[in-house]
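Narrative summary of target 7.
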Amino acid sequence: MSEFKIVYVDTAREDLTEASSWYKQQRSGLDKLFRSAIQKAFRRLLSNPYAFAIRYRNVRIIHPETFPYGIHFYIDEALKAIVIVSILHDYRDVGEM
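Modeled conformation, tokenized:
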């Protein structure tokens, strides 16, 4: 079991909800596959959060299988938390984050 817990900022939770809704509109059940891929990525993340390189401002990115999204996170050592700051489509501009 990981020594870390996963914590979302509000906007990341909104990102997940919006993406899931979009996939649900595309095809029945696709939202469930998307959420499953995100959960699988979280399990990989919990097993070794330091395996992912810092990409910008101390933020790292993990990509779920199949779906073109990046889960942007940082590690808060003091809280023993992996803080999810956004879940963005790979082609969305993150320049203003």
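The chain has a mean pLDDT of 91.
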